[in-house]
């Protein structure tokens, strides 16, 4: 057998075929702490980096999601976002003064200190294995070309824990929100080692809440184990999006 490697084989070693890529791009050194926190999550298929020169940041064929984070340098953030959006990558913005035409959806209500937690809420469902799963295609359906999104979360514990958490979410979704939401993704998180395991009867409460939402809202839900949840708790998180959500 020949020991020679042809150029095609060498390129396979230089550029291995990677799974779907989810990129977190911090624009400028001001985002370094945010990016370091995201790196600490150690999620597979997620690349988090600080971008100094916007001209060096271009979409790759394998990219599926680009989350653009900025505390300043909004013009650079918008130009990078436009390149990814034009390439068909789901492009999400966490910044103020975003050019909405450059993104699929933008979260502009949160403070900078909340950005790592928001990124985690977006990534956790699509990189984790659940009882009822939510994948990239679900996120893409929920956020593509929606312009605005919000994230809400709540915990419930003890008897009626899921309903308690859902009631907190319901109170946060004021009529001005509900009138402008087009898509809602709902995630239930529980500790699988808990002495109070999640039961099918509990999940049934969720269907009651969904039935109370306007029929115009598209709803997707999923269930995940999470060892960071306290023993007797349930966590509920939602991602809600809509073109007029910012106006509401």
Return the structural class: alpha/beta
Q: Supply Rg.
A: 20 Å
Q: Between the first and last Cα atoms, what is the distance in angstroms?
A: 69 Å
Biggest sheet statistics = 9 strands, mixed
The helix-strand sequence is: HEHEEHEEHHEHHEHEE
Helical fraction equals 25-40%
Strand order of the largest sheet: 2-1-3-4-5-6-9-7-8
- Assembly classification: single chain
Shape: globular
Total strand segments: 9
Mean pLDDT: 88
Residue windows where pLDDT falls under 50 for at least 5 positions: 1-18
Percentage beta strand: 25-35%
- Secondary structure tally, helices: 8
Short description:
Helix content is 31%, strand content 27%.
Index terms:
single chain; 248 residues; alpha/beta; 9-stranded mixed β-sheet; disordered N terminus
Please characterize this protein's 3D structure.
The protein is 31% helix and 27% strand. The protein is α/β, with parallel strands linked by helices and 248 residues long. Mean pLDDT is 88; it is low at 1-18.
Helices and strands in order:
Elements: H1 7-14, E1 21-27, H2 32-39, E2 46-51, E3 63-70, H3 74-86, E4 90-94, E5 105-107, H4 115-127, H5 136-143, E6 147-157, H6 161-172, H7 175-178, E7 183-190, H8 200-211, E8 218-225, E9 233-242
Parallel strand pairs: 1-2, 1-3, 3-4, 4-5, 5-6, 7-8
Antiparallel strand pairs: 6-9, 7-9
Helix pairs in contact: 2-4, 6-8
